[in-house]
Every structure is written in C-alpha cells, then in structure tokens.
Design brief:
elongated; alpha/beta; 377 residues; 12 helices
Length: 377
C-alpha cells in the first residue's frame, strides 16, 4: 500500500499536467511537481524499509517454528489438500518411515498402511483420529500407532497435518508380558501334573512294593511276588508317563538348525515384506534378509553382492518376474530362485521350466510350516 501510494504521489503531477486537468503557471507546476516527487520518494522509501524490517523480524519466528516442527519427537507430515502433495515432513518421519518432501507423491505415504481407506479419509481434509492401527516403517517392521489428521489453512491454502503417536514399545512390552504369563501358566500346570503323579501314583506303587518286600510268610510269598510284579509294572508305566511329560516341551519346541543364510526378496508389496520378515526371523533368527520393492535396484544389488536364495514375485508393476529372470541371465547372475505367487497357475509352472535357476514355487502369504520346509531344503 505504501509503495503504491508513493508511486502515485510521484507520478500524479505529471498526469494532471499532461491531461491539462488544472491550469497553472510554470512556477506553480514546478512546486507541485517537486512536492510530488519528494513526497512520493519519501513514502516509497519509508514503506520499502518498513517492509524489510518487518520481514527480518518475522524470519526468526518462522525459523523457530520450523525448528520446533522438525525436532518434534513424533512423526509429522504436512500435505496440501489440493493434489494431496507432501509439502513437509519432520526428521522423525524421515528417520522412521523414509518420507521426504522431495518425494511429493502420496503413494509413498499410502504404502505404509494396510488399509488405504484410512489414508483417503485423512487426505480428504477431515478432522479424524485412528487409535491403535498398524503402520509399516522403512525397515518393514510393524508400528502400533495413534494417527491424527488435522486440517488447517496456510496463506488461504487448505492443508492437512498428519501426526503419529508411536506406542510400539509399549505394545511390544505387553506382548512379551503376555508370552511370559502364558509360559508361567504352562509350567505351573506341568508342576501340578508332576505333583499329582508323584503323590497319587508313583508313591502309592512304591509303598506297595516296599510293603510286599517286607512280607516274610512263606505261604504268602508266591502271592506276594505276583503282587510285587504287578506293582512294579504299574510303577514303570507311571515313570514313563512322567518322562513323556518332561519331554513334551522339548519335542514341541524343537527348532530347525540355525544356519546363516542370505535371502533376497523382490516384491512391490510392502505389507508382504513385513509379513515375510517376521515369519522368517521367527523360524531362524540368523538369517540375513534383504528386501526390494524396485526390481531394478534388486538387480544392481544382486550383481554386486552374493546371496543364497532369491524369492521373486511374479506380478510386479515395473516388470514381471519372468523378465527379471531374463535380465539375471543377461547379467550372469547365478542364484537359486523361488517364485512367489498368490495362486499356482499351470502356465507359470510351464514358464518356469525354461529357467534353470527356478527350483520351486511358494504360495503367498508364507506360513511357518512352508518356511520351515523351504529352509530345511
């Protein structure tokens, strides 16, 4: 406003004289012209310096607000409602989920969720809250979070702030406590079984045997020996029962040999990566697992690094599994390959015969028993 006013004051005498709106002598016009130029220049200069002074005062405030936003201990994203572009994300969001404003595509944010409907409702600009939902971080680990969608305006533009409160550690602790409780209950029940067998079964047969041994009557010796034999057999059966109970935990808890293996997954589905990681490490904690959503990045990695097995998805948007196998052959990458598929198609079985590296198929989602057999072989 001040800048415009100064410009008008400086120019208006010339416009009045040009259009001859007022008749004045030369000296009067000179005074009016000088006044307009001086006043306009002063107002223009004052407004200019005032504007920059205010801006300098505001910049530290904006910088302080940004530093607070960036250092928040929770993950925060800011999206524009129109176009659903990612405008900002703080350090925690980048560290945990890999989100960064350089990648403005909201599909990266969507890939962290099981249910895309949650993302659509949040990015639609509604004020919403989701409690205890699961998000998938950049390491393909589940995160148990509360999610808040908060609409606001920035310079007349509709924006959406997304805040995540992570309570995964609490959830993990509760899970560990529950496992410990279940284990203690099982052990307590086993102790009760042992106590009952000892007091009611084994001790009764031992007492019978000791009593029969003390019998000294000759007439009763034959009958006593027969009863002693029966009591000894009963005792043997009870001891065998106890041995079975003692061995039960070892038999049920028998694990595969823990071998170190390098297994590579190539699949565009982040959720599948999370599921597969948890199942494989549950069966064998010594596995080195490498996950790729982009098949071209996977090819570059395989060309430079050794691996034991490749688990390859057949249907991917950038290239299918068969084209990936052809590129492997062209680059001279030799590796045992298992194809991942949602349903076993006879055509896929036929195609696999033309690739010597393919040694079998695994049905998604992977299950404990399938993984155990796969690792054993």
């Amino acid at each position: 406003m001040g800048l415009t006013g100064g410009l008008v004051l400086a120019v208006s005498p010339f416009l009045i004289r040009w259009f001859e709106l007022v008749t004045l002598n030369t000296k009067s016009w000179q005074i009016i012209t000088d006044y307009g130029i001086i006043s306009g220049t002063f107002l223009f200069g004052y407004s200019y310096f005032f504007f920059h002074s205010v801006r300098r005062l505001r910049d530290p405030e904006a910088d302080t607000r940004f530093q607070i936003f960036n250092k928040l201990p929770n993950c925060v994203w800011v999206f524009s409602k129109e176009g659903q572009r990612l405008e900002m994300s703080n350090e925690m969001a980048t560290a945990v989920y890999g989100s960064h404003p350089d990648t403005q595509n909201p599909d990266l944010f969507r890939s962290h969720f099981y249910d895309f409907k949650i993302v659509e409702e949040i990015l639609s600009g509604k004020n919403c809250v989701y409690r205890n939902i699961v998000m998938i971080d950049k390491a393909y680990e589940p995160r148990y979070v509360d999610l808040f969608g908060i609409p606001f305006k920035r310079r007349r533009e509709d924006m959406i702030l997304v805040l995540v409160v992570d309570h995964s550690e609490v959830h993990q602790s509760l899970g560990q406590i529950q496992k410990l409780s279940d284990s203690l209950m099982l052990q307590n029940q086993q102790l009760k079984d042992f106590s009952y067998m000892n007091s009611h079964k084994i001790r009764a047969h031992v007492s019978n045997i000791l009593g029969l041994i003390s019998v000294e009557e000759t007439a009763a010796s034959g009958q006593a020996m027969e009863m002693l034999k029966i009591a000894a057999n009963n005792l043997d059966r009870e001891v065998q029962k106890m041995n079975r109970l003692l061995m039960e935990k070892n038999v049920n808890g028998k694990e595969l040999e823990q071998k170190e293996q390098r297994i590579v997954f190539v699949d565009d589905d982040k959720v599948q990566h999370m599921i597969n990681k948890r199942i494989l490490l549950k069966v064998n904690n010594y596995l080195d697992l490498f996950f790729f959503e982009n098949p071209y990045q996977a090819l570059d990695w395989l060309a430079a690094n050794p691996a034991d097995v490749l688990l390859l998805d057949i249907n991917m948007p950038e290239m299918d599994g068969w084209h990936f196998l052809k590129l492997m052959e062209e680059r001279g990458i030799q590796l045992d390959v298992k194809m991942l598929t949602s349903s076993l198609d006879p055509d896929d079985m036929e195609k696999s015969r033309s690739f010597g590296q393919v040694s079998g198929f695994l049905i998604k989602p992977l299950k404990d028993e399938n993984i155990a057999e796969f690792l054993a072989n």
